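User: Sequence in, structure out. Go.
Assistant: Echoing your sequence, followed by the structure tokens.
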Amino acid sequence: MSDLPHQTVLLNEAVEALIQDRNGFYVDGTFGRGGHSAAILNRLSDQGRLLAFDKDTAAIDVAHRRFADDDRFSVVQASFAELAEQVEALGMKGHVNGLLLDLGVSSPQLDDAERGFSFLHDGPLDMRMDQTRGQSAAEWLAQAPEEEITQVLKEYGEERFGKRMARAIVSARAERPIVRTGQLAEIVKAANPAWEKGKHPATRAFQGIRIHVNSELADLEAVLAQSMDVLAPGGRLVVISFHSLEDRLVKRFIRRQEQGEPLPRGLPVTDAQLERRARSLGKAARAEAQEVSANVRARSAIMRVAEKL
């Protein structure tokens, strides 16, 4: 179901921050259903170009249909962790005018029960953004040691009852395979002794497993590490995060680029030797109340912007 509706979060704010040169070369690291890509293309001249990435076959299908007649647009089915490789193949390393990363899972992925992302809709326990490769959530849970499941739930799901939930998962899989989202949600719900008000008791567990299955934080660290090398001087990095783990990585990365390489205290060095590579632009931005009321998923969105020096 590739045409499920999707509301793009912080659309105008992100594009406004991203584009400084209408003739430039830009990268949309997460195409999704093309909301940001369409807005970027609307702002570009005939000489401007946009390269988009997405792991999801359904998203790639939408991209080909939606922008098939626009010569300024190209898309690759790949993680944005392959940014440098793809940009270098186009001869554009060091010439990218803006990189946009809209992190996390998209609304169509969450709303399609067959994708297995949501505890609200029973479906196959998959959770892969790219269903053509890697282990599904069901395959991972079938063989992962209890200690590994615990670690994933605690570190990626920020779930304080991760150990109890992992023990319950291991016990349940000994009875029968866990292959449906409904099954997993019930197991985790029963193992959660303190439900948070307004939050489903399986929320954090599903988040942690999804992040693990898709290597989301590792991919984010990889693309951030490559970003300064692909951006042109004055090029913008715009990142929209949806939970604290992502935002913490982005915030620390931008701070490191502003401050330069860490050196021993008291070492006599010039400012130039610190190798500062970027500056933060403004404060972190959040969706306005009007956007949140129209799209509850915008509530947790936070956008940070940096400019390469």
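User: And one key feature?
Assistant: Residues 5 and 153 are 30 Å apart (CA to CA).
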